[in-house]
Amino acid sequence: MFKKIEIWVLYLTILISILLTISFGVLVRQELVGSTKFGWLSKNALFLSEIPVYLKALGSDLKLENRFPLLDGFNGTPNLQESYLLLSRYDGNLQEGIVELIDLTNFNTLHTWNPEIDSFNNLVNQVDEFKYLNRDNNNKRSILRHPYIDREGNLFFKRTSQFFKIDSCSNLIFQNTHDLFHHSIELDHEGNIWIPSHMYPQTLSYKEVGREIPNAANKSLLGNGGGYKDDAIVKLSPEGKVLFEKSVSQIFIENGLEYLLFSVGGRYFNDDPIHLNDIQPVIETGDYWKKGDLFLSLRHQSMVLLYRPSSNEIIWKGVGPFFHQHDIDILDKK
Question: Measured between alpha carbons, how far is 194 from 187 in angstroms, rounded to an integer?
Answer without folding.
Answer: 6
